[in-house]
């Protein structure tokens, strides 16, 4: 009986294209798709369509699928995150053999992956949670892949995953082992959070240029095309130019007909929630999530716009170059926040994340790929224990040069009534980070005043706490301290 090198379950857009990618790299691939109402015949349509004449084995049941794969089996699931993954795992388990590897290539929440790694190991199997970025095109031609999970599984799946991954300009595969447990899906979650931030920052630059500089879509496309040849060279800037130029069937710009209500699938929200749990100030990306939520309040925005007029603004004081520099500075701060979150979580979960490797595998294939990432890779290769990306000498020079423009653009937005939540968050984070003596001493005094929460003194050693009877009517009893 003919057997395959790898199996894939789930022939939707990403799964189908990943399967074709695998086959094109010399692997024979078994495929299976669960039959839900309206999805009957998916496997046969694929085998007789895009897969015709290629090295695929089409199967129509779980047992047929599993038995068609050579041992130790490598099975990749491309199904919706959440309970569908757990349900499919339970269907696979009766047919697996010790040492088989199950790979979840969807956007699963990393705590679920942590749990599944332990569960499968308890039964003698390996589980890998692997982030896959690049969309339909990346899946077919080479995505960025972020695997993590059972450490002993990596030698078994390395050839397949690195074989189908995008290749950087230096030939390195955009796929490296992230770490144990949920590390792979965690890194993919942060990647998606940064993606939220990048997209929001680009839309803010678009809004400023459109409403303050009066540029039409074709002129805006030209600006983004120019930016894509410099420091802002990236996939998202490139497609923004293409979107701005695209015309509908009637010859008018399609972008102007698209409703301004942004959707999301939850990974940006997970990043924000995780940052709160890790006590990490992921402000820019969190504001990008909130911006999408606010966009969804279309009826309320319509009512508010009829009640409150926009400020009467003076002539614009910013240039196109100011907006370019503001976008660059804010983008750098977004990445600094993302890597900061990874650092805190890595220490918490003992993942030992390699930030240079992470930046390097994002250089090609994925949605946030950009020339910018080469410099981030260099920064962490030079100093793997870099506390904050903003402390790297190269980026320090870049941020100091761009910061005046970010201040001008944020100020212009505030004075003219253009919402710039993520650019504003970038500026506030930067100013908060570089402030030696903040106003948080007043917060501590307030907390001690009303709740006896205590405070530390600058003229005493750190870790020693004090309480003051502010009103002369209180006692010496203090509140317990705890972190949440």
Draw up the topology in text:
Blueprint lengths: L5 E4 L3 H12 L4 E4 L9 H6 L8 E3 L3 H6 L6 E4 L5 H10 L8 E4 L5 H13 L3 E8 L1 H7 L2 E6 L4 H11 L14 E2 L2 H29 L5 H11 L7 H11 L21 H11 L5 H13 L2 H10 L12 H30 L5 H7 L10 H11 L10 H24 L4 H13 L6 H12 L33
Helix pairs in contact: 1-6, 8-11, 8-12, 8-14, 9-10, 11-12, 12-18, 14-17, 14-18, 15-16
Molecular structure report:
The chain has 484 residues and is of the alpha/beta class. It has 3 domains: 176 residues, Rossmann fold; 245 residues, N-(1-d-carboxylethyl)-l-norvaline Dehydrogenase, domain 2; 45 residues, 6-Phosphogluconate Dehydrogenase, domain 3 (Single alpha-helices involved in coiled-coils or other helix-helix interfaces, Up-down Bundle), CATH 1.20.5. 51% of the residues lie in helices and 7% in strands. The chain has 19 helices and 8 strands. It has an 8-stranded mixed sheet, sandwiched between helices. Helix 4 links the parallel strand 4 and strand 5. Helix 8 crosses helix 11. The protein is globular, with a radius of gyration of 25 Å. It starts with 5 loop residues before the first strand and ends in a 33-residue tail after the last helix.
């Amino acid at each position: 009986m003919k057997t395959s090198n790898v199996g894939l379950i789930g022939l939707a857009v990403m799964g189908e294209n990943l399967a074709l990618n695998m086959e094109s790299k010399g692997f024979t691939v078994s495929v299976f798709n669960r039959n839900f109402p309206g999805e009957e015949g998916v496997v046969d349509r694929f085998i007789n369509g895009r897969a015709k004449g290629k090295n695929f084995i089409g199967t129509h049941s779980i047992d047929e699928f599993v038995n068609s794969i050579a041992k130790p089996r490598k099975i990749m699931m491309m199904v919706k995150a959440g309970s569908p993954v757990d349900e499919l795992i339970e269907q696979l388990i009766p047919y697996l053999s010790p040492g088989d590897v199950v790979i979840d290539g969807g956007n699963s929440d990393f705590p679920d992956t942590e749990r599944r790694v332990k569960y499968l190991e308890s039964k003698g199997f390996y589980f890998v949670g692997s982030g896959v970025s690049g969309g339909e095109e990346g899946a077919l031609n080479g995505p960025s892949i972020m695997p993590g999970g059972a450490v002993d599984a990596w030698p078994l799946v390395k050839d397949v995953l690195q074989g189908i991954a995008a290749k950087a300009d230096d030939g390195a595969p955009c796929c490296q082992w992230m770490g144990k447990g949920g590390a792979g899906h965690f890194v993919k979650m942060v990647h998606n959070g940064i993606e939220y931030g990048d997209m929001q920052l680009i839309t803010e630059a678009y809004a400023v240029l459109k409403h303050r500089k009066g540029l039409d879509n074709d002129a805006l496309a030209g600006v983004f095309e120019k930016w894509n040849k410099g420091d802002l060279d990236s996939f998202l800037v490139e497609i923004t130019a293409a979107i701005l130029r695209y015309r509908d069937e009637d010859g008018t710009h399609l972008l102007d007909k698209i409703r301004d209500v942004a959707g999301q699938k939850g990974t940006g929200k997970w990043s924000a929630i995780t940052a709160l749990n890790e006590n990490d100030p992921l402000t820019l990306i969190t504001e990008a999530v909130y911006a999408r939520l606010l966009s969804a309040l279309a009826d309320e925005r319509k009512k508010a716009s009829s009640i409150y007029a926009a400020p009467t603004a003076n002539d614009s004081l910013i240039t196109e170059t100011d907006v370019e520099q503001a976008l660059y500075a804010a983008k750098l701060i977004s990445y600094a926040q993302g890597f900061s979150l990874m650092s805190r979580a890595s220490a918490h979960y003992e993942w030992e994340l390699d930030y240079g490797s992470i930046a390097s595998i994002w250089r090609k294939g994925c949605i946030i790929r950009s020339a910018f990432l080469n410099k981030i890779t260099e920064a962490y290769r030079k100093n793997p224990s870099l506390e904050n990306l903003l402390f790297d000498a190269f980026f320090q020079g870049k941020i100091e040069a761009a910061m005046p423009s970010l201040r001008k653009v944020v100020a212009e937005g505030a004075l003219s009534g253009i919402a710039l939540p993520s650019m504003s968050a970038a500026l506030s984070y930067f100013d908060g980070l570089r402030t030696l003596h903040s106003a948080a001493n007043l917060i501590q005094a307030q907390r001690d005043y009303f709740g006896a929460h205590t405070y530390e003194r600058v003229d005493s050693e750190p870790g020693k706490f004090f309480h003051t009877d502010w009103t002369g009517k209180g006692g010496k009893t203090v509140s317990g301290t705890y972190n949440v």
